[in-house]
Amino acid sequence: VSGNGHLLIDMHSGRVLAESNADARLDPASLTKIMTAYAVLREISEGNIQLQDQVLVSEKAWRTPGSRMFIEVDKRVSVEELLEGMIIQSGNDASVALAEHVAGSEETFANLMNEHAQRLGMTNTHFVNASGMPHENHYTTARDIAKISQATIVEYPEFYKWYAIKEYTFNDITQKNRNS
């Protein structure tokens, strides 16, 4: 397995099938979006937001570098479309727009992500943004990513299916899922 750390667990038994450096502190990059999606799905399940809510895209979200779903500043996009653009296409712009919608700012949303991480027992994780852009205080481990992944699968199976969708079209632009 390529990478600096990995962990493969049988979800039903909890048995570790393979691991290497599972507790090494790593830059999660776009794996951050697993927690971003989880936090948004939690807000939906608690009735704080809805899939149909229209999110006004800020200039900050629009300008976010890296992978994009190509949302446009000052346009309204549904929470559902943003979630799909983030989960399927890994859109950093969608991640920031969702964070701002849920918490008012990406920084406040990162605090919410950290609260979820603590609750789930992710003891070697700290988030400072919703997209996974590099930062010295933005880190996790393979073991902690396994915890949030398992929580997503168990708590939100209807949305977990979205991770397997092969491509996504938004704004007449079709992009393949980055998770090949």
What is the number of beta strands? 6
Global outline: globular
Distance between the termini: 15 Å
What integer is the average pLDDT? 96
Number of helical regions: 7
Oligomeric organization of the protein chains: single chain
Helix/sheet category? alpha+beta
Helix content, binned percent: 40-55%
Beta-strand share of residues: 5-15%
Order of helices and strands: EEHEHEHHHHHEE
Return residue spans where pLDDT drops below 50 for at least 5 consecutive residues. Answer: none
Strand order of the largest sheet: 1-2
Question: How would you characterize the largest beta sheet?
Answer: 2 strands, antiparallel
What is the radius of gyration computed over CA atoms, rounded to a whole number of angstroms? 16 Å
Characterize the structure shown.
- The chain is α+β, with helices and mostly antiparallel strands and 180 residues long.
- The protein is built from 7 helices and 6 strands; from the N terminus they run ββαβαβαααααββ.
- The strands form 3 sheets. It has a two-stranded antiparallel ribbon with strand order 1-2. It has a two-stranded antiparallel sheet with strand order 3-4. A two-stranded antiparallel ribbon has the order 5-6.
- A hairpin with a 6-residue loop joins strand 1 and strand 2.
- It is globular and about 45 Å long.
- The model has no long low-confidence stretch (mean pLDDT 96).
Secondary-structure blueprint:
Blueprint: E1 6-9, E2 16-20, H1 32-45, E3 54-56, H2 59-63, E4 76-78, H3 79-87, H4 92-103, H5 106-119, H6 142-155, H7 157-160, E5 167-170, E6 173-176
Antiparallel strand pairs: 1-2, 3-4, 5-6
